Amino acid sequence: MTETQRGTCFCGSVEIEAVGPPMEMGYCHCNSCRAYSGGPVKSYMLWKAEEVTVTRGGDLLGHFSKTGMSDRQFCMRCGGHLMTRHPQWGLTDVYASVLPGIRFEPSVHLNYAEAVLPIRDGLPKLNDFPAEAGGSGQTLPE
Known about the structure:
Helix content: under 10%
Largest sheet: 7 strands, mixed
Order of helices and strands: EEEHEEEEEEEEE
Strand content: 35-45%
Number of strands: 12
Strand order of the largest sheet: 6-7-8-9-4-3-10
Shape: globular
Oligomer: single chain
Distance between the termini: 39 Å
Low-confidence stretches: none
Structural class: mainly beta
């Protein structure tokens, strides 16, 4: 049996669900994620795109795509950020706080070369993205 996790935006108008465990959990330090989230680092949980669906409030789901690589999705009622679809990879990343039933266990830091908040947690710090995702795969020291 596959576990389904449900979560909502800040006001509860938009609900999403994710089926199965996330492929990866981590932190992104890129300027775009920081600027969009309003924080020095963004946490994410990554699924295959077809495993994450909007189950309520789809008419309230707003979209923003700065570069075409990321379709950032939010509630148009409260502004709460929900997820980002990455069509070129067939993946969706969900903000870790959106699905409270999942224990957040990060395994990596992405785009650490752009970090403004150094974090010493023993996790790998990738310069950009893994090589299999089109990045250099290069790690940086803590």
